[in-house]
Each structure stands twice: as C-alpha cells, then as structure tokens.
Specification:
By secondary structure, the protein is an alpha+beta fold. It has one domain: Small Protein B, Chain: A. The protein is built from four helices and nine strands. Strands 1-8-9-2-7-5-4 form a seven-stranded antiparallel beta sheet. A two-stranded antiparallel sheet has the order 3-6. The longest helix has 25 residues. The chain starts with 6 loop residues before the first strand and ends with a helix.
C-alpha cells in the first residue's frame, strides 16, 4: 500500500495553504494507553501541530491534540503531550540536513489508520509568503470561474 493510503482520521487542509510541500514521509506514532481508541473515534486535531527533531535525533510531534477517551479511567492520557514519530535512521538523517536550511519545517498532513496502526504523513514544507498565498487564491478562483462557465455552457 503506498504511503498516505488508509482510513483517514484527520487532515491538515491549512498546510497546503501555508507551505509548499516538497516531500512527504510516512511515520508511525508512539501512543500510550487510550490514545489509539480516541484516534479510532476521530477525536484528534492536527491543525496547530508540527514536528521537530530533538538533540537525540528523534522526531517529535508537538501540539497534536488527542482528546481523552470517554470511557477511560483515571489513567487516561495527557491530550497535548509530545509524541515520538517512528522513522528510519536514513530518513531522519536526511530530514536533519533539510530542516536546518532556512524556512523549512516538518508539517503533519494527515493521520490515518493502516493495517490497524496509526500513521502520520509528514511533509517537508517551505513557508509561503503572503503574496504566494494570494496568488494561489487567485488561481483557485479563476479555475472555479472557468469550471462554472463550462458547466453553464454545457446546459
């Protein structure tokens, strides 16, 4: 199964608006306790999250919010703790070199279930400037207008 396929739980639609995504990587997430149950229920938010490589060479997912499981007891998990991502050493070494360049960031694009395991698709993105965002919106609007005109013409 290619990377990014599976049952999509959460998607970061704002990432393609804020970043030029140059490359994507599939990573596993280290979860504790009832976190997987909350993910399967779809109670996860990746809107404000990002990934970072720490000094030990491990990739951490920061600000990922997984809501507490309703049927969980007092041993429920912390919703916003940082979670370790599982990548191959070669991929981590490549990401270390790329993220040290100015303007690059690791952005989670979507969380999905693949063969029963929670995976995250992270993208290596370069931040867009304000004029880039405006240009994308103009192109999107022009495409929408053309499609609408073609549809009206076909009637």
């Amino acid at each position: 199964m290619p990377k990014g396929n599976g049952k999509v739980i959460a998607q970061n639609k704002k990432a393609s608006h804020d970043y030029f995504i140059e490359d994507t990587y599939e990573a596993g997430i280290v979860l504790h306790g009832t976190e997987i149950k909350s993910i399967r229920n779809g109670r996860v938010n990746i809107k404000d999250s990002h990934a970072r490589i720490d000094r030990k060479g491990e990739v951490q997912l920061i600000n990922l919010h997984i809501a507490e499981y309703e049927q969980g007891n007092r041993y429920n998990h912390d919703p916003t703790r940082s979670r370790k991502l599982l990548l191959h050493r070669k991929e981590i070494d490549k990401l270390i070199g790329l993220t040290q360049q100015q303007g690059y960031a690791l952005v989670p694009l979507k969380i999905y279930l693949k063969n029963g395991f929670a995976k995250v698709l992270i993208g290596l993105g370069k931040g867009k400037k304000k004029y880039d965002k405006r240009e994308d919106l103009k192109q999107k609007q022009m495409k929408r207008d053309v499609d609408r005109a073609i549809k009206d013409h076909m009637r």
